[in-house]
């Protein structure tokens, strides 16, 4: 499982929430290195759709359907 952290720009000023205690307004930040796990791309299933997240040679991330 990925570690999730409230984004630095979150409006919440309280003690950081555990993943199951986050409110719907908290923004979660996940480092792309942990998400990609050394790979150049991964597939993300969202409902019935599949998206491809690619890490390019120019160090950009591209999400395509």
TrEMBL record:
Superkingdom assignment: Bacteria
Region (Disordered), start-end ranges: 1-27
Protein name (record): Hemin uptake protein HemP
């Amino acid at each position: 499982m990925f570690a999730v952290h409230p984004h630095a720009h979150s409006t919440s000023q309280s003690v950081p929430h555990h993943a199951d205690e986050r409110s719907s307004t908290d923004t979660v930040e996940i480092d792309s290195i942990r998400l990609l796990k050394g790979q150049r791309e991964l597939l993300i299933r969202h409902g019935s759709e599949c998206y491809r997240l690619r890490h390019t040679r120019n160090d950009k991330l591209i999400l395509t359907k």
